[in-house]
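Risk register update: the risk of archive-format incompatibility is retired. Evidence:
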Amino acid sequence: MSDLMSGLPLLPTSVVGSYPVPEWMERLKTDYYRGRMSYAQLRDLHDMAIKAALRDQELAGIDIVSDGELRRDNDIDYFLARMPGIDIPQTSKDFYFDYYDARVTERLPVTDTAPLMLADDFSFTAEQTSDPVKFSFTGPFSLSRRVRNEAYDDPAELVLAIARVLNAEARALAARGARLLQIDEPFLAGYPGEVETAIKAVNIVTEGVDVTWALHVCYGNRYARPSWEGHYDFLFPAVLDAEVDQLVLEFARKGYADLPVIDKFGWDRTIGLGVIDVKSSDVETPEAVAARIRSALGLVPAERLVINPDCGLRNVSAPVARAKLAAMVAGAAAVRSELTGARPLNPLNPSHEEPAQ
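Archived output:
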């Protein structure tokens, strides 16, 4: 696996993926789907927004940044619209965030190419920052839940077929220099009986791709509301067979009662610890973040923790996102200093020198 994590500080901070979409950008993206703006203009809009999101993360002190998923209208359509064999009869939308009505009428073609062109998206992002980049994409199980299946007798076959397409994308991403790839399965919590199929598909996606792999499982985050409730015990023991290095999970909203479940089943890899509630606009204090991290240290050693929000930040405002990320970085720094004895850096005075009087 990639040695990305070995080059980061103890308790490195990351984001899950998405970043706030300003109201003006929502209007312009909707204009595009109503035929009022060209694709070239939309592409320029996305480029500008990604640069701004990266700058926000850098200023907050995030160790592993993302493109904010700002080219994507939701968690599904960007991938299905580019996938050979997926039929989308109506491509206009009333609102950019709406889902397409997608269907598959014939078995997906087998190809070694990367038709979704995700490597191009990664390359643009990597050119804008010197920080490590996490590149995320929606996993095969969740993508399959938004497709009307008219081609496969067994729905699991569709999941595995989508996984093979995503494996080609992952290979292209790794060839372009990606070192941390994350598979998002936001629908899985709603179908706990399908976890074995989902993990089998995850392993098809990761096969032969030598990077650090993360698997993010949440309870849904559309319109800042959970789609399901439950506990992470449904993932076990199947997820132990997942060929991934990290499990990125939400805890800040739900509480940390699931951590003993993870320990009980013997997960011995990294945990992406959700310490920021993305479904609330209330900004956590650094002290609250630090307390949440400390609560996990009794079960997961610091060397196996990455500190992140519960899920993507799409549904909070940009000022709230910036404040939450700053609190997360400060809280992680406080605990890191407790563990290492090093005084946390002051971002306004990184030398630790006292200001001149």
